[in-house]
Model the fold of this input.
Amino acid sequence: MSDLFNKLLLLRAPRVGIIKYNDLVARFGSVADAAASLNADVKLRDAVMREMDAAYRLNIKYISDDDAMYPETLRAVPNHPPVISVRGNVDALRREMVAIVGTRHATANGMGFIADIAHGLADNGMVVVSGMAIGTDTAAHRGALRAAGDVVTVAVLAGGADYIWPVENESLYWEIVERGAIVSERPVGFVPNANAFVPRNRWIAGLGNKLILGEADIKSGSMTTARFAMDYNREIWAIPSHPADSRAMGPNSLIRSGAARLCLGLADFVKMDEKNQSQKKNLKKNDSDSDVLDAIGTIPVSESVLAEIVKKSVSEIKSVLVVLELQGLVQKTDGGYIRL
Done:
């Protein structure tokens, strides 16, 4: 029987988690002998075979921690997953990764700021890691996807690598599969429960060389991720926000305590030399209507106001906005348009 089958047999056995897995392998001297010690019944063996068959059909790959493609940062984490499943480009796991997390209920300003940082990081060869939740996670992934290349972002899921959640992010899921990677420690087809999210947060922290915390309540999964990052001696950056907003409590508390560095933007991570500035100027020149795009920020602006700013008619502005929205560069809100 294959080494992978034996590893999965151990991991999928009742009451065998990562710690018990490691104990069994250490006690019996090999994965094969540890798996044999289970005397696994036909039902468990069939379940593992069905999972492996499903993964093959869905083009989901298994990567063990003794494989060269296993992420070095994650391998260094105590009691890391012995096997992870990956859907997409496994090369993304060998790049420098930066974790970005924050609340699901982020403000438009907060998501715009996160997206811009993620875009800049991906533009400079780094891979953005997050959890594909709505809000901050989505902004991080979508920001990275604005960059060129096919290894720009990694999503760590609480469910199986084939389980798309939330359903609102189905299109984002497939974009990540196409231009990055989906990662999970769970069986193919696994539907996440409440207990699955803390380990997911742990692996997000473990994959990143550094972690950027956006808006987050003081008691939240994002703060749990930040605490894991502290345990792993990761470099932690926090984006400050208005103290009257509960979503500012997480990052502001880390900055005040000295646990995190103050993050003011991409320049904290990328040296904005003349080459970077030149690339930015060229990018703006290549925008179909850069004057309209430049007039849109994180504060909603109406079509009529845009028309006044750029000296175009409202009908012209509407035509440009349709294109920019299709390109994923702007978004319509109740108060007008904001830049993504």
In short: The chain is about 45% helix and 15% strand.
